[in-house]
Amino acid sequence: MKRTILAGLAAATLAAPAIADTETMQATGTVAEVMDRLEAAVTEAGATVFARVDHGAGAEEAGMTLADSQLLIFGNPQLGTPVMQEDPLAGLYLPLKMLAYDDGSGQVFVAYEEPEETFDDLQVDDDLEAIEKMEDALEKFAKAAAGE
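Request: output the structure for the sequence above.
Response:
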């Protein structure tokens, strides 16, 4: 019995997906205000905004409640293309995404995954200049969105 439980735990652990490093930054203002600043920063940097997803509104439409949460999906082919040239599976993780959310107590945060960690399991060189530029841009965008 003990062996069966241990084997099950080992299998569950191995089957669990790896979680990329998430950067989180406290922000000032409402989720909508934070997202407006984020969208402006992304646009000013020359990236393309593909979508702004309002998770809270989606939950409300489904008759459920969820603290305010919005996701911005954006990208720049100058940075994404070199990564996908190294491994086309990078397209599963691109374009980039940033989340602004209310933690349920009224505090708003901005969050994003570190690109180097996101592409870690792919055949992408960690020292690729495009990844470094993505990381720099995401940090800059998070600071702008947070109101710093």
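Helices lie at 2-15, 31-44, 55-61, 77-86, 115-118, 129-146.
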